[in-house]
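ERR on first pass: missing label on line 2. Operator R.T. fixed the label and resubmitted. Corrected input:
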Amino acid sequence: MHRDRVSPNNQESAETHQADENTDRNRLRLLEADGYQEAVRRVIVLARLQDLLAWGRKNSLWPFNFGLSCCYIEMATSLTSRYDIARFGSEVVRGSPRQADVIVIAGTVFRKMAPIIKRLYEQMMEPRWVISMGSCANSGGMYDVYSVVQGVDKFLPVDVYVPGCPPAPHTLMEGLLLLQEAVGSERRPLSWVLGPEHIKRPILPARRDLARESRQQARTFPGMDTVAWYSSKDQGPR
Amino acid sequence: MMHDLPILDELRLRFGKDSAQIEETRDDIPTISTNKASVLPLLRFLKEDTDQPYRMLFDMTAIDERNRTTRPMDASNEFTAVYTLFSFDRNQDLRVKVPLASDDLLLPSITSIWPSANWYEREIWDMFGIRFNGHPYLRRLLMPKSWEGHPLRKDHPARATEMTPYELEEEDEQTEQDLLKFSPEEWGMQRTHDQVEYMFLNLGPAHTGTHGILRLVVQLAGEQIVDIVPDIGFHHRAAEKMGERQTWHTYIPYTDRIDYLGGVMNELPYLLAVERLAGIRVPARAQVIRVMLAELFRIASHLVWYGTFAQDVGQLSPVFYMFTDRERVFHIIEAITGGRMHPGWFRIGGVAHDLPQGWEHLVREFLEYLPPRLNEYDDLVLGNRIFQARTKGVGRYTTQEAMDWGVTGPGLRATGFSWDFRKTQPYSGYEQFDFEVPTATNGDCYDRGLVRVEEMRQSLRIIEQCLNQMPEGPTKADHALTTPPDKARTLHDIETLIQHFLAVSWGPRIPAGEVMAKVEATKGCNAYYLISDGAPWPYRVRIRTPSFPHIQMVPSISKGHLLSDLLAILGSVDFVLADVDR
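pass 2 clean. output:
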C-alpha cells in the first residue's frame, strides 16, 4: 500500500459516486471501459495491517505535556498559531503520561529531576518515543556542572535529537517530522503469537551528514549589517 | 564619604566601636563587618528601631574565602556571611558581613526578624554548610536530600565530568522516589485537627499549572488551603558555581538563562557590575540599544505571562494571541541579534554589533501594531467577568508584607507602593527617558495583572523614545578591558598581538574588588553581586533573583483560599523556575 493514498482516495471516490449516481448505465460503462481496475482502486484500500497501523501512529503522535526549562517555552510556541504543530497531528497535548505517545525532553535534565523523568517515561504506554530537545537534553550542553545529567540518553532511549539552545519552534517541528518518518517505516509485531517479536526500525542517517555537501557549497551568507526582511506584513509565516 | 554615613555612627554608638567595621567595596553600598554576637540585635535594630529603617532583607548569601588571594592581611576567617538590606526611605542598601571560622560555622537565625530569611538560610546551609541556630526547618533547599557535600564550597567539584558518571539504576530511582515522599510530621504539620482530616495533595514537579518544575505539597481541608510546603531545586542549574569557572566574557550567555523569558535583560545587571569593577563607561548609543532590547524583552516576557495567566484561570484562547505578538517581538530581536530567547548580545563595554540597516522600520511597525492589540486584550481578558471573579480579592498582600518577604517589581507596585529601580536608582541612562510607574491599590492577583499590562504600554513608550532619539556613535567603549578586544589595537607589533591573543583566549582580568548592580527586571529586582580576585574569572558570583522570594511568599498568601485559587496566585506571581533555583 502506498501510505499517502488512504485519505485522498476516500474523498475522490465520494465525489465520483455523487456525479455518477444518476444512472446505472454510467456505472456500468465505468466498469467496462478503462475502468474496472480504476474503480476498484478508487474505492478499496488494500494494506497490510502493520502498514496501516504504522501510518496511523505516524500521523497522530500525541506529546506529553512535559517541560523542564527554557526549551519548553519554545515547545509551547510550536503549538501556537505562527507555527501550528496541529498541521502534523501533534497538537493533542496530553496531561497524563498514560495517554501520550511521545515525550519531548524539553530542557535541562537535572540530577534532582532525573528519577522523576524516568518514572514518567515508565508510565507511558508502549509504543512510546523520546525526542531530546536542545543541547542540555542532548548532552548537558553548556551545563557541564554538578547538578546536571550530561544528556537524557544516560537513562532514557532517545529517538531524535534536536539541536539548539533552545531550538526554534520550527527546528523542533523538523525533529517531529523525522520522528514521523521513523515511526511510519517502523514495523512492530501485531501480537505475541504472530510473526517475529522484535521491532524493525530503520536506521536514519544523521542530518549533519546529509547537509554537509550543500553546506560546503554555500558561498553567500547574510551579513549582520542589514535586516534581511523589511516588513513582517509581507513576510508571512516563516 | 561612606564613613560619614549617620547610620554607621548610630550603630557604633549603640553596639560599640568594634561592632561595625567599615569595609571598602567598589560600589557605593556601605559595607560593615560585624561579629556573630551582635548580628542579631544589630539587624533587628536596623529593621525595627532606627529612623528610616531598612525594611527589606534584599539578599543573603555567603562566601567561601579559602582560595581568595586579594584580602587584607589580618583577615583569617574561612567563610563570610553577607546580609544585604534595603531601605526604601533612604533609597539605600546596606551590606552587613559576618566573618566565620571553618570550625565554627554557626550563626543565629534571623527568621524572627524577616520571614524571607527562611529560604536564604536554608540555601546557605545547603550550599556552604553554615548552620543557623533557631531556624525552624534547616534542611537542604536546592540539592536533593541524598546529596553529599556543599556545592558552593571551593573544594566541591564544579563539573559533572569531574564526578562519577551519572547512572540511574532501578534501585536508585526507587531510593530517590522514597526520599521525595512527603511526611507532614517532618514539617510540624498535623494530619487531623478538630475532627477535620487534612488531605495532602502533591502538585508537581511535573504539573501544568506550576509553570515549570516546582513542587508544592498542599495541606487541604476539603477544598480549602491550610498550608503549603514548596519544594524547589528541581531547576538548580548551578549558575553561581558556573561563574567561578567561566571567564568574565564567556559567562554572559549563562546570565540569559537565569530568567529565561527575560533574555538580554539578565545580561544587564551582570555587565553593569563588571563595568563598574573595570571602570568602563558605556557609550550612549550602546546604552540606548541595551535599553531598547531590554524593554522589548520585558514586553515578550509579560506577553507570555499574560497568555498563560489567562489560561491558568480558564481562558484558553488568549495565549494564542499573545504568543503571536511575542513572535513579533522576536522578529525584531532576531533581525538585530540573530537569536530568539537567549541572544547573548551585550558585551563588556557595549553590545556585540551595531544595529542593522532597516531596524527602525521593524521597530516602528511593532510600535504601531501592539497598542491596539493590547486594547483588545483589555476587553478579552481584564474585562472578562469570569477572569475578574477568579482574580479579584485573591492572593492579597499589603505593602508591609511585600517588604517583609522581599517582594519587588510588579508585585510590590500592585500594593500601591510606587517603586521602580529604573526611576529610583537609574542605570544605563534610564533617567533620560520619559515614562510612568504604574501602580494599583489592592495587591491582589487582578492588580498584579493590571500593573503588568500597563507596564507593557510604558515599555512601548520607552522603545519609541529609543527609536526617535537613537544617538550616533560607537557601540563599544574604548577601553582595554572590553570584550572582544578591539581589533584595531592589534597587529602593530608583537606586544599588541600578544595582548590581543590573551584578551581573546582568556578574556580580560577585571580588577579586584566587590560590587553589586541591580536592575528592574521583568519579574522584579535582579542583582549581581560579584567578587573579583583580579583573575580572568570571578571569584564569586551571587545572583539575587526576584522569583526566589516571590515563590517563598506563596504559602502565606494562599492560606484560606480554595485550591483553584492557588493556580491563579501562581500565575499572578509570574515566576520562572530558573530564576528561583538558578
